[in-house]
């Protein structure tokens, strides 16, 4: 008589999951202040929201996202402690766009096989990025899916909640003709467009361990560069009255123009000067290796601009000074004006993400 089937025999190792929690819990606890109750391992993360009673009209902001196919690079290199920055950046920096302070975050990891050390590395990275963002990691879930995912495969996702006072809400309602665009440098590709990037690398026959002189490191190291997390810097900038911040846009899927158009009021156009910044080498490499047209590059990758602040004309110097003091490379990217009905052409972007909003006109040529 044979032994009956067990969960372990089906490919799920609950003891490995418990070990992963033990390895990660100290990193998670470092993100948690007195507002977080219950510690690690509860069915639900608990957050003391008493501070919201001090708000006149608190608005809750929420966002959810994943890392996308960048995880394939982490898996190929067997480097897993940085991917958490990509996850946190994609989630919390969407919240700060409206001026909201991210309060807490949760994560979800689906994998083919729980390798405790690997799962712990992923979560340690998430926790480290939460510390940078100033948000608590209050819970998460790791799910083992044998037969659906290969043993070394995984995907990560997360969600966060924040709060903003209603009369401090940032967005299109505050933006006016004459406002100025302040670009903030990305740390590289961030976490969007990797399906294109990976296809280009495969087409070129390049290996991830190839040293690339323009990068000063290997191709894999460049592609795995963590996403810059802007949350704390943006919130400090928004609190600076002299900076006159009216809106932010997070440059993610769709590129600069498409995301910028989302935070402009209808009837306005943001004119972006392509020559106002130097495009990092990795974007030129993707273009040249794949023969990628400029329009596709602009519609897919951030090209060196990870976040944009829209500020009043009199707030430019204060905004640039504040960002410089915080160590964020920033520059004047362009201006906001009234949309000329005659404006048209492939360099004019409108109607993105199904939003009735403004337009973005890309002008000039890039500096390599």
TrEMBL record:
InterPro entries: PurM-like_C_dom, PurM-like_C_sf, PurM-like_N, PurM-like_N_sf, PurM_cligase
Catalytic reaction equation(s): 2-formamido-N(1)-(5-O-phospho-beta-D-ribosyl)acetamidine + ATP = 5-amino-1-(5-phospho-beta-D-ribosyl)imidazole + ADP + phosphate + H(+)
Keyword ATP-binding attributed: yes
Source organism, top-level taxon: Bacteria
Residues annotated as domain PurM-like N-terminal: 54-164
Record EC number: 6.3.3.1
Pathway(s) per entry: Purine metabolism; IMP biosynthesis via de novo pathway; 5-amino-1-(5-phospho-D-ribosyl)imidazole from N(2)-formyl-N(1)-(5-phospho-D-ribosyl)glycinamide: step 2/2
Record keywords: ATP-binding, Cytoplasm, Ligase, Nucleotide-binding, Purine biosynthesis
CDD domains: PurM
Transmembrane intervals: none
Enzyme class name: ligase
Alphabetical GO biological process terms: 'de novo' IMP biosynthetic process; adenine biosynthetic process
Gene Ontology MF terms: ATP binding; phosphoribosylamine-glycine ligase activity; phosphoribosylformylglycinamidine cyclo-ligase activity
Subcellular localization, as worded in the UniProt entry: Cytoplasm
Any one of the GO CC terms: cytosol
Principal localisation: cytoplasm
Keyword check for Nucleotide-binding: yes
Domain (PurM-like C-terminal) ranges: 176-338
Recorded family membership: Belongs to the AIR synthase family.
UniProt protein name: Phosphoribosylformylglycinamidine cyclo-ligase
Taxonomic source organism: Luteimicrobium subarcticum
Source taxonomy: Bacteria, Bacillati, Actinomycetota, Actinomycetes, Micrococcales
């Amino acid at each position: 008589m044979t032994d009956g089937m067990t969960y372990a025999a089906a490919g799920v190792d609950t003891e490995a999951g418990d070990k992963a929690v033990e390895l990660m819990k100290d990193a998670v606890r470092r993100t948690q202040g007195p507002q977080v109750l219950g510690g690690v391992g509860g069915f639900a993360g608990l957050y003391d929201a008493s501070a919201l009673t001090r708000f006149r009209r608190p608005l809750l902001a929420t966002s959810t996202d994943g890392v996308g196919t960048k995880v394939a690079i982490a898996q190929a290199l067997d480097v897993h402690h940085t991917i958490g920055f990509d996850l946190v950046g994609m989630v919390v920096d969407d919240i700060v766009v409206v001026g909201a302070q991210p309060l807490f975050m949760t994560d979800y990891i689906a994998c083919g096989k729980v390798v405790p050390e690997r799962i712990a590395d992923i979560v340690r990275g998430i926790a480290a990025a939460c510390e940078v963002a100033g948000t608590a990691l209050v819970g998460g879930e790791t799910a083992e899916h044998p037969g659906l995912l290969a043993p070394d495969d995984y995907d990560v996702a997360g969600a966060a909640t924040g709060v903003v006072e209603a009369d401090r809400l940032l967005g299109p309602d505050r933006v006016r003709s004459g406002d100025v665009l302040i670009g903030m440098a990305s740390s590289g590709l961030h976490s969007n467009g990797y399906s294109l990037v990976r296809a280009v690398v495969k087409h070129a026959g390049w290996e991830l361990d190839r040293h690339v002189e323009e990068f000063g490191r290997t191709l894999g190291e460049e592609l795995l560069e963590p996403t810059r997390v802007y949350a704390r810097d943006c919130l400090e900038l928004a609190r600076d009255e002299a900076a006159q911040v009216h809106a932010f846009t997070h440059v993610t899927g769709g590129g600069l123009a498409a995301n910028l158009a989302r935070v402009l009021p209808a009837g306005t156009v943001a004119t972006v000067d392509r020559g106002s910044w130097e495009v990092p080498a990795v974007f030129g490499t993707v273009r040249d290796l794949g023969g990628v047209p400029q329009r596709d590059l602009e519609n897919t990758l951030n090209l060196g601009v990870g976040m944009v602040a829209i500020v009043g004309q009199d707030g430019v110097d204060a905004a640039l000074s504040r960002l410089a003091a915080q160590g964020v490379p920033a520059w004047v990217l362009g201006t906001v004006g009234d949309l000329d009905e005659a404006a048209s052409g492939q360099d004019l972007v409108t109607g993105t993400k199904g939003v009735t909003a403004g337009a973005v006109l890309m002008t000039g040529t890039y500096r390599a």
